[in-house]
Amino acid sequence: MEDLRTLWLNTGVANLEWGMVLMVVVGAVLIYLAIRHKFEPLLLLPIGFGAILANIPLAGLAEPGGLLYYIYQIGISTGIFPLLIFLGVGAMTDFSAVLANPKMFILGAAAQFGIFATLIGAVALNWVPGMEFTLEQAAAIAIIGGADGPTAIYLSSQIAPELLGAIAVAAYSYMALVPVIQPPVMRLLTSKKERQIKMQQLKPVSKRAKILFPLMVLIITAFLLPTAAPLVGMLCLGNLLRESGVVDRLSNAAQNEIINVVTIFLGLAVGAQLSASAFLNVQTLGILLLGAVAFVIGTAAGVLMAKLMNVFSKDPINPLIGAAGVSAVPMSARVVNKEGLAANPQNFLLMHAMGPNVAGVLGSAVAAGILLALVS
């Protein structure tokens, strides 16, 4: 009987807590959303699976000595995984749309307003009972507004690792919900006549300009905002591999093997942070709420800036493309194109929207550098 009792006490059922059960359900829901609805499946599926692994009683996978613990320590706490993701993103990104129309950089910057507005909102939430965010935590939460998962993970791992799981889930969840969140904001702030505006065809961009662009961006960043250099540097390296045309093997590796392997481990490591004690609290509710607010404000700021630019621009600008300034590439650009076609079946905005979209990738990295400089 004593042996049976010992065996029972070492089973998962005997050590199961309600919080663990709930987090296993959360993990299963993330997997369901990834498979059934294709919501950011590349990240939500491994994150959900990591959450299940982390909440298995006595397995210790997310504790010191466990597999997920070491994956987290090696790739997330050091910031290596998000930086390698940025290498792959740079190799997959074509900056031609923004180089052909440099004014789109303004829209990419305007959409980051949601980040800094949410920073103020996170600090203000300290007045709510049960909510208490430090400046570092508020900055990490605010970056959700950039709709850039790797940037959110990188910044939170550096300044607020205790909130990493909730921030990552919020960031990728809202990125997946771009087709749901953005259209109502876009329609609210624009008239049908504005949504029907056709933009002029983009000019071709020379190979030399494409090669010089990542080098110039890196040099400017290094001089003006060194804290953003890790993210921007890896993005520029990946883009230079792509545009140089002489290292196709390296470019293909960055776009495929490297980013795919890192994505698996990144998702598992983030999921490992979704333990019941870390996730089931009032702060998590505040993070999810602020993330949604940040996303809405970023979308609205991009649209309003496009409307303002249209007043002074010789060439017509469709305000819808401002919504693509959040760096959910290419989903937000596709949403813009869909809304444009709904207003005018002949209005194709995809390539125009890709300009502020890829500019937003740089914008979110720069915003993360600014926040890191402010709080560190």
TrEMBL record:
Function, in words: Catalyzes the decarboxylation of oxaloacetate coupled to Na(+) translocation.
Subunit structure: Heterotrimer of an alpha, a beta and a gamma subunit.
GO-annotated molecular function: decarboxylation-driven active transmembrane transporter activity; lyase activity
Keyword annotations from UniProtKB, A to Z: Cell membrane, Ion transport, Membrane, Sodium, Sodium transport, Translocase, Transmembrane, Transmembrane helix, Transport
Keyword Transmembrane set for record: yes
Chain coiled-coil ranges: none
Residues spanning the membrane: 16-35, 42-61, 67-92, 104-125, 163-181, 211-237, 258-279, 285-305, 356-375
Record organism: Aliidiomarina maris
Protein name per Swiss-Prot or TrEMBL: Oxaloacetate decarboxylase beta chain
Location of the protein in the cell: Cell membrane
